[in-house]
Design goal:
5-stranded parallel sheet, 5-stranded antiparallel sheet, about 25% strand
Length: about 240
C-alpha cells in the first residue's frame, strides 16, 4: 500500500460550531481522498463520537459553544493519544502558544487555503504514523488498526476505545514490557492510579478477542509485577 493511501484511510474528527465550515472542511478532505471523516458541533457531541469512532487525528476549533478546544483536547487525549490540529482565528496568537503548550501538533489560522489544510494534515499524519502498520499478525488472530477490530477464525470482532488504545501502546512496544503505569496513563489520562483492576479487566477482554485460549495467552503475556508484553508474529502493510 502506498504511504498516501494508507494515511488517507485514517479516521479524522472535525469539531467546529459553524456548520458551513464543517461542510467545507469535509469537502476539502474528500476531494483529497480522505473519506473516513466524522464531524461534531460541540464538546459533548465530540466526546461521544470519539468514544465510538476512535479518531486518529482531531481538528478542533478553539471556541466552542459548551467549552473550548483546549479542554476538549485534554478529554480526548485522556482516552487515546492521537495528534490534534487547532483551528484558530486570525490574530489570536495566545491561542497558538497555549495549544502548543498543551500538546497540540499544529494549527491553521482561519480563513485558510484548502492546500494549506491538507498539507498540514498530511504532515501530522506522516510524523505520527510513519512506523505504524494497519494490520498486525498475532499467533491466533490479526489486529486491524484501520477498522479497530480483531480478525479471528474469519470473524471480525470490534474493539472498544480503551481496548484499541491499550493494543496500540502494546503494539508500538511489541516484544518489550509495557508497565502497568504506562498502560493506565494511556487509557485513563494524567492520574492513572487506582485503575489497575480496570486494566486487568480490559486485558482479559482483549485476550478473549485475540487468543485461542485466553486462560493460556501466547500473544498478550503478563510479566508478573511489571506489566504486559505483546508478542507479534509478523507485521505487514496490505
Amino acid at each position: 500500500m502506498m504511504e498516501n493511501e494508507y494515511l488517507k484511510k485514517k479516521r479524522i474528527l472535525i469539531v467546529d460550531d459553524e456548520q458551513e465550515l464543517l461542510d467545507m472542511v469535509v469537502s476539502i478532505l474528500e476531494e483529497n481522498g480522505f473519506f473516513n471523516v466524522r464531524t461534531a458541533g460541540n464538546v459533548k457531541e465530540a466526546v461521544t463520537i470519539a468514544d465510538e469512532f476512535c479518531p486518529e487525528l482531531a481538528v478542533l476549533d478553539v471556541m466552542l459553544p459548551d467549552g473550548d478546544g483546549f479542554s476538549l483536547m485534554k478529554q480526548l487525549k485522556s482516552k487515546a493519544d492521537y495528534p490534534v490540529l487547532f483551528l484558530t482565528a486570525c490574530g489570536e496568537e495566545e491561542d497558538k502558544f497555549k495549544g502548543f503548550g498543551l500538546g497540540a501538533d499544529d494549527y491553521v489560522v482561519k480563513p485558510f487555503l484548502p492546500k494549506e489544510l491538507i498539507f498540514r494534515i498530511m504532515a501530522i499524519l506522516r510524523r505520527s504514523y510513519k512506523e505504524e502498520n494497519p494490520l498486525v499478525k498475532l499467533k491466533d488472530s490479526e489486529v486491524d488498526f484501520e477498522r479497530a477490530e480483531v480478525i479471528k477464525n474469519g470473524e471480525h470482532i470490534a474493539l472498544t476505545a480503551k481496548e484499541f488504545t491499550l493494543l496500540s501502546v502494546l503494539c508500538r512496544n511489541a516484544g518489550r514490557i509495557v508497565t502497568i503505569d504506562v498502560l493506565c496513563e494511556a487509557a485513563w489520562g494524567d492520574n492513572p492510579y487506582g485503575y489497575e483492576n480496570s486494566l486487568m479487566a480490559h486485558v482479559r477482554r482483549i485476550r478473549e478477542k485475540i487468543e485461542k485460549n485466553p486462560s493460556k495467552p501466547v500473544s498478550l503475556i503478563t510479566v508478573k509485577g511489571l506489566g504486559y508484553k505483546l508478542v507479534i508474529e509478523e507485521n505487514r502493510n496490505e
